[in-house]
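Q: Give me a backbone?
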Amino acid sequence: MQPIIKVTDLTVRYEDRTVLDNINFSVAAGERFMILGRSGAGKTTLLTHMLGLGGTASGEILVDGDSIIHGDPLAKRKILRKIGVMYQSGALFGSMTLLENVSLPLEEFSGLPTDAIEAVAHNKLQMVGLGEFYNHLPSEISGGMQKRAAIARAMALDPKIIFMDEPSAGLDPTTSVRLDDLVLHLSETLGITFIVVSHELPSIYKVAERIIMLDDGKIVADGDPLTLRASCDNMAARKFFNREA
């Protein structure tokens, strides 16, 4: 089976600094895949290039068989229709209701009439447990609910892949667990591929089916996080998984 994402020989340099050095990995369709690493390890750079926003790079990234690096604008637009993104802050528009926020991708890409857009947006909010809050502004709901609304917006166009950047950042442990449960539920019921940047060990152990860990721009660990915690050869990865200084 062709992987839904395939990264081949990806190298990113900024002037004389190599941020990612010959990165290779693939992600299977429906997989819950996490990217780990300390600050400055290259996680954000990798995520940015996987979204086609990273600028110059050598190598290749295929998303559902199409190049996000070397494709023409029409090919990249086709790819973006298959992708949803949840940013760390949620990135909801504060002057818009939750329904209006979730409706934005549909207004831009779907061509549906207004009543159909509202119906789809409301359905997405219901899927994340926010159906009753459709008319609220982001400032009127909790941080955890804002993250759920951001997931609803990421799902608006029924993407094959959802990228999430530090989804648990700023959340208390109970709210973080509920968010993990939501990701598991959506993965199991909808078959969405989740690609998550995270450093939260409880979420990593609960949600991830597979991880890669970056250190100094290279992949130093690849596999099931629980297995890696018990028997990883790389010292940096072993310390990370076991919370060692």
In short: The longest strand covers residues 17-27.
